[in-house]
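User: I'm putting together notes for a lab meeting next week and I want to include a structural view of one of the chains we've been expressing. I don't have a solved structure, so I'd like a prediction I can at least talk through. The sequence is below, exactly as it appears in our construct file.
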Amino acid sequence: MIENGFDAFIPDPFKAADCYEKAHNNKNTDATFNLGLLYLNSERFGVESNEALKLINEAALKGNTKAQEHLINIGYVNSRSEFVHANLQVSESDSELEEEEEEDEIRKSEFGNL
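Assistant: Thanks for the context. Below is the predicted structure for the 114-residue chain, given as structure tokens.
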């Protein structure tokens, strides 16, 4: 199941989940999608299906076409246009967040870490 930039197949699902989690934390949408699938298809992790679907949806909203196709195939969404509209909203909120972070950094550099 490990693919898309990973060098090896890892048969242990817990090790695979750990690898996916690390890549997900580094904003790898393939890993986010695969982690969601792993959780969705295995009860061994104790993750609710809605939490697994949130991961898949997160990857889809960030443009991962495999995640988008999966959500369309299972009837979670009706078409790709839903991702385009949602992605525009996510992009706008992401840019606002980035601006706030930049302003915080400027304040810290001007006033020091109080």
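A couple of points you could mention at the meeting. The CA atoms of residues 11 and 56 lie 21 Å apart. The chain has one domain: 13-111.

User: Perfect, that's what I needed.
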